[in-house]
Amino acid sequence: MTTDLETRAAPSETETSDADRLAIDTIRFLAVDMVEAAASGHPGAPLGQAPLAYLLWTRHLRHHPDDPDWPNRDRFVLSCGHASALLYALLHLAGYGLPLEELKRFRQLGSKTPGHPERELTRGVETTTGPLGQGVGNAVGMAIAEQLLGARFNREGFPVIDYRTWVFASDGDMMEGVASEACSLAGHLKLGKLTVFYDDNDVSIDGPTSLAFSEDVGARFAAYGWHVQRVDDGNDLAALEAAIRGAAAESERPSLVVVRTVIGYGSPHKAGTADVHGSPLGKEEAEATKRALGWPLEPLFHVPEGARAPFEEARERGRQMQAEWEELVARYAAAHLEEGRELRARLAGELPEGWQGALPTFEPDEKGMATRAASGKVLEALAPVLPQLVGGSADLTPSNNTKIKGSADFSAAERNGRYLRFGVREHAMGSILNGIALSRAFVPYGGTILIFSDYMRPPIRLAALMGVQAVYVFTHDSVFLGEDGPTHQPIEQLAALRAVPRLAVIRPADANETAQAWRVAIERRHAPTALALTRQNLPVLAETREHAAAGVGRGAYVLADPAEGEPEALLLATGSEVSVALAAHKALAAEGVRTRVVSMPCWELFAAEDQEYRDAVLPPGVRKRLAVEAGAPQGWHRWVGEEGEVHGLDRFGASSPYKDLAKAFGFTPDVVAARVKKMLGQ
What letters, b where the CB count within 10 A reaches 16 and e where it falls short, cover 302-336? Predict the structure, then answer.
């Protein structure tokens, strides 16, 4: 397989020829016509970025439009997702099967060309972008995934994993904290196959960036440990070519290329102003721009003869590159049988057969253990049979119990390590996990305490939107973390996370439910999962030892029923409150009050069950229901109904030992039992 710089850059011509100019202006005016047709969008960035995009996509980007999922392709991330019209023009011209009719339906219901790129919707889009900075963070994750896979599988003479990650970023990306967090880590890790092109056009929606932004971005990135280059004219293909080559030649550091462009280039009256950032040019200005650049006014969405030729040549090179790679992988599999089998399975997103057999079970124990500790034991048991598991913590390793014993840290010096030290960068951690997950070769996880899920909600939401697998290990899941006090005690976080579509939030009651929660999270290959785990010890329940394996995956199950007769009331609980509900159930039974205890570790999984199962667990005829959870009560009324009640928290916590907090807030068996009797009129 040939991967040298000359092949990546072929052909070698760097002057702006008539053919170059034709293709570049085709990109520009496809974007302009998209935005005008929609009467909505961002034409400025595509007009300024088109020369760089053209050069990268036709001469450097290793990709094969006929197979967008070719594992060894380069990744292209449009972090400034508002410039989506640029990407759609490229996908159309490059042959990704995005027809002109879809470009004409830009930003319309049901189109393949939404306002911001969506990975699951449009063929060739690597990641869903739009919230600024997220694409940069995803790209860092993609670069980490490439290094992890290369370290695991590459052998002498067999570079089966060898691709680059290229990013287009805007002023807004550079202002967002998540990009700063991720790029700081990328410099520390020396991710040399990552290149970010910074579209330095000095304009944001409000006006000139000088209103709020005056830093030297290149100097900041140099301080991060990046290789920094500058191109003074974004229309200078020779300078852009040299910068791309310079980035590709730098193997020790990630690269930032600061490209000075003119937003809305070619627009006689709006170029270089905020007027062209997030609004259409308008019919008159669009026509004036076409005249200024020598482009015909009609037809709209014009693709002249010859404009596709450079993209077709790139497509043919991509076809040849993939064929060479497939041949290399075949020879690799013959020379390295075990690694070859694993490589193909990993790249296909397959899990090892029978891995569930490694899940531990825990014997009943009144003293028990914290579910965060149980989670650590589960990780330790699964790591040897699931090489896909890779992850870490945002500087809370001993608190989250996320370290795999015997696993080295992934670092600039050690690419075989499976443990990621994210530092105090929760937001970047979430975004990086998404980038790793997009490779399909890993089950990535990241740990912090539940209160700090707020710091990483945007990438959690994007993981759910994209349907990618990430596992969030959220420990210290309630006020019962204790003495650290209300700044660190989650109240509304469970409710907020449960509001995210496709995200499964699992709050296990004990060690056995925790093991099954991990099973569910690993099996959810196309959706993210949040685990909410305790700091404090919880008893390992005999009931979960018997029923958790079948029940957790269904979201809720019956933990205890009356010895005789039908229940008069239902006790619903999650996490640490399940043992409280179970103790209340036993106390009530001694007084002749019949209750059923339902463990509800995951609402989302339970809601996905059929009505028959839901009614079997929560009989419609039993209307007296009490939900017990040490968090905000929002959402529980779906399960308790009009006659039910919620024993939750509608206030912040307090700094105190957790047992004192349990008494102060009424999360004790006697208080729960008293509420049930009051509901029943006793």
Answer: bbeeebbebbeebbebbeebbeebeebbeebbeeb
pTM of the full predicted structure?
0.96
Q: Is 426 a catalytic residue?
A: yes
Distance CA 640, CA 598 (A): 12
pLDDT digits (tens, 9 = 90+) for 460-497: 999 999 999 999 999 999 999 999 999 999 999 999 99
Tokens of residue 592, six digits: 């002749």
In whole angstroms, what is the distance from residue 41 CA to residue 553 CA?
A: 43
**Cα 282 to the center of its chain, rounded Å:** 36
β 645-647/443-449 pair status: unpaired
Strands, E assignment, 375-467: 389-393, 419-421, 443-449
Query: Contact, 638 vs 587, CB < 8 A?
Result: no
Find residue 475's DSSP bridge partners. 449
Q: Which one of 118, 241, 426, 543 is the catalytic residue?
A: 426
Q: Decide if 473 contacts 400 (C-beta within 8 A).
A: yes
The three-state DSSP-derived secondary structure of 235-288 is CCHHHHHHHHHHHHHCCCCCEEEEEECCCCCCCCCCCCCHHHCCCCCCHHHHHH
d(CA 606, CA 555): 4
Handedness of CA 484, 487, 493, 495 (dihedral sign): positive
Cα–Cα dist 556/574, whole Å: 9
- Residue 638: count other Cβ atoms within 10 Å of its Cβ: 11
| Cβ proximity of 144 and 420 under 8 Å | yes
